[in-house]
Design a protein that fits this description.
This protein is of the alpha+beta class. The protein has helices spanning 3-14, 63-75, 81-85, 89-95, 103-123, and strands spanning 27-33, 38-46, 52-60.
Length: 124
């Protein structure tokens, strides 16, 4: 992993974007990765058109899980639930600067997107 992308991940880990909990959200979900102990609580609000208007998260875990959650919250604003449902590992790796993750880090990186996808399904 290049030094630039490593620094970007660490920046998102130490100073996460959109950290917190929304009041009166449309999506409110807790998810964890029992393999490594990462946890996430994700809340989101949709606009009148059904697009994501705001999304916040809180949790704890490794650099990869927390940085990917921070990056995801920035990337999904304005997206439809269908667009979020189509996100996968490749998209998360691209958000993280094109890094290719080891098998041991895939679940960490996907925790936030899995939470958002599941939360959007459950609200319907």
């Amino acid at each position: 992993m290049s030094e630039l992308y490593r620094e970007q991940l660490l920046d998102h880990y130490h100073d996460p974007q959109n950290y917190g909990v929304l009041e009166h959200p449309d999506v409110d979900i807790h998810l964890d990765n029992p393999t490594c102990g990462d946890t996430i609580h994700l809340t989101a609000r949709l606009d009148e058109a059904g697009r994501i208007a705001e999304v916040l998260f809180e949790g704890h875990g490794c650099v990869v899980s927390m940085a990917s959650a921070s990056m995801l919250t920035e990337a999904v604003v304005g997206k439809t639930p269908e667009e979020v449902a189509a996100l996968g590992l490749h998209d998360i790796e691209e958000m993280m600067g094109g890094v290719r993750l080891s098998m041991g880090r895939v679940k960490c990186a996907l925790l936030s997107v899995n939470a958002l996808q599941q939360g959007l399904k459950e609200r319907v």
